[in-house]
Amino acid sequence: MAALKPGVIALFDVDGTLTAPRKVATPELLQFIQDLRKIVTVGVVGGSDLSKISEQLGQTVTHDYDFVFSENGLVAHKQGKLIGTQSLKSFVGDEQLKEFINFTLHYIADLDIPIKRGTFIEFRSGMLNVSPIGRNCSQEERDEFEKYDKVQNIRSKMVSILREKFAHLNFTFSIGGQISFDVFPQGWDKTYCLRYLDGFHEIHFFGDKTYKGGNDHEIYESEQTIGHTVTSPEDTMKQCQSLFLES
Q1: The one catalytic residue among 15, 64, 189, 216
Q2: Given this model, what pLDDT does residue 247 score?
Q3: Is 182 annotated as a binding residue?
Q4: 15 is catalytic
Q5: Fewest beta carbons less than 10 Å away: which of 28, 143, 173, 188?
Q6: What is the DSSP letter of 231?
């Protein structure tokens, strides 16, 4: 195996990049990551909180990757240790958050979609996750909503209305996964994690939602990164094999 390449990091999105959406990573993928770590530094940046990322990548995720950035990097771990957190509540304030949450819940209540479940708004450290169907839906219901949303544009229409209504809050709205979108202050997208990577001269980012409006777009387009669009965990491994393991 070649020697570690100093100053080079491979940074990965989770859903659609290292795993199928909300599914557990395969043993093949997990082993591939450990092999890759022998060559370059490896990090993961996901919109979900650490508990959800751990469900997908393993309970030892903060030790299995050199960097783990949950909630877009608003909660940051390096070599198993917490190195930074950011608070949406402190930044925005309860009064403005309450106004946003009340309006959003009213909107969802009036939304006519085939099914609704529970947990329509999930409050995280650095963001809100909004789901028109509710995060308590089954995997089958997730898959059905994703198909429905591609035709009816439920999430994109909702984002347009919220963006206009709450323009004064300077929120960014980012559609990701199958059933939800994230809401956070401007600049708190996945590029937030880059502040912890000053020591790297080559940052490769791999993600599946790199298009405008997708939750990988800003970091993919960043001048600080070399962006790679992937279509599946298998494609991620193939691209990394070619870039890092065969060179």
Answers
A1: 15
A2: 62
A3: yes
A4: yes
A5: 28
A6: S
Q: Out of 13, 66, 149, 189, pick the active-site residue.
A: 13
Best CATH choice for the domain 8-74+189-245 from the list 3.20.20.140, 3.40.50.1000, 3.40.920.10, 3.10.450.50 = 3.40.50.1000
Residue 117 marked as a ligand binder: no
What angle, rounded to 10 degrees, do the helices at 27-36 and 233-240 form? 20
d(CA 76, CA 69): 5
**What pLDDT is recorded for position 160?**
97
Q: What is 89-185's CATH number, 3.30.1240.20, 3.30.70.980, 3.40.50.2300, 3.30.300.20?
A: 3.30.1240.20
DSSP, res 243: I
Using a CB cutoff of 8 Å and minimum separation of 24, what contacts does 50-54 make? 50/75, 50/77, 52/22, 53/14
Q: Any binding-site annotation on 135?
A: yes
Residue 22 in marked binding region = yes
Q: Was 195 annotated as part of a binding site?
A: no
Regions in the chain scoring below 50 on pLDDT: 1-2
